[in-house]
Design a protein that fits this description.
The complex is a heterodimer of chains A (486) and B (474). Chain A has 486 residues and is mainly alpha-helical. Chain A has one domain. Chain A contains 19 helices and two strands. The longest helix of chain A has 32 residues. The two termini of chain A are 26 Å apart. With 474 residues, chain B is mostly helical. Chain B has two domains: 247 residues, no CATH class; 217 residues, no CATH class. Chain B is built from 19 helices and two strands. The chains are: A mainly alpha (486), B mainly alpha (474). At the A-B interface, β1, α5 and α6 of A face α16, α17 and α19 of B.
């Protein structure tokens, strides 16, 4: 037990913020925004401290917290970090901090909006830090439900359909998880939901590993937007309000990939090896299909939505290689993609608010009119197509190296998909930001300083980890080795 | 005789006598009785039930067994009665000249239910079951329109048929074992279970309880009765009556065991209940009918836990019954207020339009209750479902568990549809909804209960386990 429960403190910040926001009367909108910002800053500061004091030489769990919860069912409130989740906690903190700042311009039902955001992010933090399957599931669903309200109340473009689709898909995935978790618990040598105890005490026989892994993979895969269960994600991203899209594409989709690593691969390594080929094929579908569909989209948000599907494919491909390099690449891609999509959505949201359209054809010439927001979007785009010096370059490189080693054909095909990515990103950039200025939105104003800060923070992170990837790789590499039984 | 063993029942008997005397008076005391007497009595009843919680013993020549299991469920029934008494503030379709009668039948139904939880003699069980059932038949047909008597008669006929089947089963069991006492029958089960007639008797007897739980194939009454009864009565049927059904099913299965073949049959019934309830609920427009189909689905979940037939299965069913009362009361509380505002006692989905603008408090309560029914954390329905299904999984019913969770996802569609009406649609009338004092406090209590018990269930789970342990010890 560490002297100061830093993980619980990170979790408690948004929870306390949520309670305070709920207690604040509805008319004090600025106070509500500042309270939310305070909570988000608190988690950000604590997460940065966590990353600073995180011991990269220790492959096991650190900062372990443990509390009996429901004794007779082996349910403990227990948190810990290792290389797998330390970066994701930081990612969540960054994205929520920027998300709150980006939402400063929300005017409709301010209190409900920020309460939902804080509630959602509490769930995300919980999933990332818990080591008990009961709490994993609990926090997972806490992260899903506010999304429904965020989309249905503050969303746009076919929001009712998208919100219901998203919620039902994600809960369908969680139903498989639920059954899988309960099955593990019901084994006579288990009788606990504690991840570590399960790993130590229970050896699952190969056929059981295969079935359980498939179930859990499908469950988590829905959230990770694995082909063919990705259909909820572009619709959901498009319909959600800006900050919710940021959190959703930036962080929520990572929950699925994290779950695959943390639960499915950790507990069922043989099952993972058994199905690795299938995952590789599915992830290739993600990469190629997502990119191809993105080339056909006119709406900037749909382009980003499908590019997310494509990029999550890279994460899954990294996992499918079942090598340390692949895992490192997958984790790096989760982080880089999280920051990058958050930046994308932050830019598109701002443009949509000002121009009232997101169609690439209808925009045009924004770079002259609003140079700052254009620069941010173009930077995100360059990151998306894997420009060296940006975070995702390193990530994609690692995954591709691992993939070419394990599955040469799939690895090489995935490289060609990068060309498609370059094509659609550059086309969109060209249409929206260059060419003649469209007079319809001649009065579009560029970012003010308040809106500049969150986007600058995101770009800063992308570049920082692009130039110093070793910082990130030091966090993860020991833990991923352990994961493979090294 | 220890008075505490029979304290809640004594309170109820005394209250019934007082109300009977009041009916003789020339002056009409209906309004004060419903407005003040019943809520106050509810509070006293809750206090009485909780204060007698630690006491246990046998009464009336061992026909009546008061143990933590019975006492726990009595508390639950007392709470449902109290909640219903508060919801009476929003009553709409109870005729003015029948208000005292309404009170009497409510009390007698509660009395019957409480006695059912403790009855361990087939005859005592039958008598208390009929006492509660007949009171409920009358309550369900109180409303003065053409649909209400129809629902009442449907309820009566189904109920009477279920009672008949129970009597048949009970006569087989009694005939083969030579006694009506469940405690004595329990000792003879290992020998008699090999006789097909005995197993058949047990199955028939438990069918009557399935009727109370509104599980398939004895669910037909539920949609009509839920729809046509006055909303507080619907709430009472949906909470107290269901809790009693769970109590008696636990007691009965625990004493007699579940015959092997019957487990498979119960599994099939649970499967159909969940599927049927959830799919039919998808297309409902009348909110009370929707909640009725949701309760049929919930009966399927509870059966999944019960048919595990294990310590964990019974204790988690107990926990779930408690969760069930809380979340259903929440849903019906909002329904009753909306009905009152819309001035007709069958609110449709569209009557919930814009509830979040008209009363954010009620909308929140509705949201939490429905999400809890759908089993979404961190609410009590989630924790309940988790332990319920883990008990079933222990016994290898993985398919039912998987099916149950998938069903929860389906159910979320119609729950969210209602939420959508409350949060998204624009209201026709945008005047704020006034929530009266008692209803507001109850709503607050429910919100806190739903969240607190969902997050910190340990104490209650331990209590439920103790109750089952002591109930099992003969």
């Amino acid at each position: 037990m560490s002297p100061f429960p830093i993980l619980s403190a990170i979790l408690l910040c948004p929870v306390a913020g949520l309670i305070l926001v709920l207690l604040t009367p509805r008319k004090f909108e600025t106070a509500i925004k500042f309270l939310s910002l305070l909570a988000a800053s608190g988690t950000l500061v604590l997460s940065i401290i966590l990353c600073k004091i995180f011991n990269t030489a220790d492959p096991g769990f650190q900062f372990v917290e443990h509390l009996e919860w429901i004794k007779s069912y082996g349910i403990h409130y227990s948190n810990a970090v290792d290389g797998l989740n330390v970066s994701l906690i930081l990612l969540t903190a960054i994205v929520i901090f920027c998300g709150i700042l980006v939402s400063w311009r929300v005017t409709y039902r301010v209190k409900d909006f920020f309460a939902n955001m804080l509630f959602l992010v509490s769930g995300v933090f919980g999933v990332f830090m818990t080591t008990n399957l009961f709490f994993f599931f609990l926090f997972y669903e806490i992260a899903v439900i506010p999304m429904y309200l965020l989309i249905v109340i503050w969303g746009s473009t076919n929001k009712q359909y998208a919100a219901m689709k998203l919620t039902l898909y994600l809960l369908l995935g969680s139903a498989l998880m639920f059954a899988g978790f309960l099955y593990m618990y019901s084994l006579p040598e288990a009788r606990t939901f504690d991840l570590l105890t399960l790993k130590q005490n229970v050896h699952f026989s190969p056929p059981i590993q295969n079935i359980l892994f498939l179930g859990l993979f499908l469950g988590f895969g829905v959230l990770a937007a694995c082909f063919p269960f990705h259909v909820w994600s572009p619709d959901g991203h498009v319909a959600a309000p800006t900050a919710a899209s940021m959190l959703h594409a930036g962080v929520l989709m990572k929950l699925g990939a994290y779950g695959i690593l943390r639960v499915a691969v950790t507990l069922l390594p043989e099952g993972a090896r058994h199905w690795a080929g299938l995952i590789a094929v599915l992830s290739l579908c993600n990469i190629v299909y997502g990119a191809l569909v993105a080339t056909q989209q006119k709406d900037l948000k749909y382009i980003i939505g499908y590019s997310s599907v494509s990029h999550m494919g890279i994460v899954l491909l990294g996992i499918a290689t079942m090598t340390t390099v692949g895992f490192n690449g997958a984790l790096f891609q989760m982080f880089a993609h999280g920051i990058m999509t958050a930046l994308f959505f932050a830019c598109v949201g701002f443009i949509y608010d000002g121009c009232h359209t997101r169609m690439a054809d209808e925009l045009g010439g924004l770079s002259k009119q609003a140079p700052m927001i254009s620069t941010f979007f173009i930077l995100a785009g360059l990151c998306g197509l894997g420009l060296p010096g940006m975070g995702s370059f390193v990530a994609e490189l690692l995954v591709t190296i691992a993939a070419v080693g394990t599955y040469p054909m799939i690895g090489i095909t995935s490289i060609t998909a990068l060309l498609i990515t370059a094509f659609y990103v550059l086309t969109a950039v060209q249409k929206a930001f260059y060419g003649p200025v469209n007079p319809h939105h001649a009065d579009f104003k560029d970012l003010d300083w308040l809106q500049f800060v969150p986007r600058a923070v995101l770009v800063g992170c992308l570049i920082f980890f692009g130039i110093f990837p070793s910082v990130f790789l030091n966090w993860v590499s020991l833990s991923t080795k352990i994961l493979l039984g090294g | 005789m220890n008075l505490f063993l029979f304290l809640p029942e004594t309170v109820l008997l005394a209250a019934i006598v007082i109300l009977l005397c009041l009916t003789l008076a020339k002056k009409d005391y209906g309004t004060p009785v419903l407005g003040f007497f019943l809520p106050a009595l509810g509070a006293i009843l809750v206090l009485a039930s909780f204060s007698s919680l630690p006491h246990s013993g046998n009464l009336f020549s061992n026909a009546y067994r008061v143990d933590p299991l019975a006492q726990g469920f009595k508390c639950l029934i007392a709470l449902s009665f109290f909640f219903t008494a508060i919801l009476n503030q929003n009553r709409l379709s109870i005729p003015f000249d029948r208000e005292i009668e309404y009170g009497i039948f409510l009390l007698s139904a509660t009395l019957g239910m409480m006695m059912m939880t403790g009855a361990v003699d087939l005859l005592a069980l039958y008598v208390s079951m009929e006492l509660s059932s007949y009171s409920l038949y009358l309550l369900a047909s109180l409303r003065q329109d053409r649909r209400s008597p129809e629902a009442g008669v449907k309820y009566l006929i189904f109920g009477a048929a279920a009672s008949g089947v129970f009597l048949w089963g009970a006569s087989l069991v009694t005939g083969l074992s030579g006694t009506t006492s469940l405690l004595e029958i329990s000792g003879k089960v290992p020998v008699l279970i090999w006789q097909p007639a005995f197993s058949l008797g047990l199955v028939f007897a438990s069918f009557a309880f399935l009727f109370k739980l509104s599980g398939f194939p004895l669910h037909f009454w539920a949609p009509d009765v839920y729809e046509s009864a006055p909303t507080p009565v619907t709430n009472f049927i949906a909470t107290a009556s269901k809790a009693t059904a769970v109590a008696i099913l636990i007691r009965f299965f625990m004493l007699t065991g579940i015959p092997g073949v019957f487990i498979a049959a119960l599994g099939a019934l649970a499967f159909v209940s969940m599927t049927l309830g959830n799919t039919v609920a998808l297309v409902q427009q009348d909110v009370k009918r929707l909640l009725a189909y949701s309760s049929i689905a919930q009966a399927g979940y509870i059966l999944t836990g019960l048919l595990a037939g294990s310590f964990a299965g019974y204790s988690s069913s107990f926990f779930y019954a408690f969760a069930y009362v809380l979340m259903n009361t929440g849903a019906f509380l909002v329904t009753s207020v909306v009905a009152k505002t819309a001035n007709h006692d069958n609110p449709r989905l569209s009557d919930f339009d814009g509830l979040a603008e008209r009363s954010p408090f009620l909308a929140l309560l509705l949201l939490l209750s429905l999400l809890s029914l759908a089993g979404i954390p961190p609410l009590v329905g989630f924790t309940g479902k988790w332990i319920l299904f883990s008990a079933a999984m222990d016994k290898g019913h993985w398919f039912l568990v998987l099916w149950g969770v998938l069903n929860s996802v389906v159910s979320l569609f119609y729950y969210l549809t209602l939420v959508k009406h409350a949060y998204l649609e624009k209201p026709v009338v945008s005047a704020p909804i006034a929530v009266s004092g008692g209803t507001r406090w109850l709503g607050l209590f429910l919100i806190i209960g739903l969240i607190a018990l969902g997050l910190f269930p340990n104490a209650f789970i331990t209590f439920a386990q103790q109750a089952i342990l002591k109930g099992a010890a003969l």
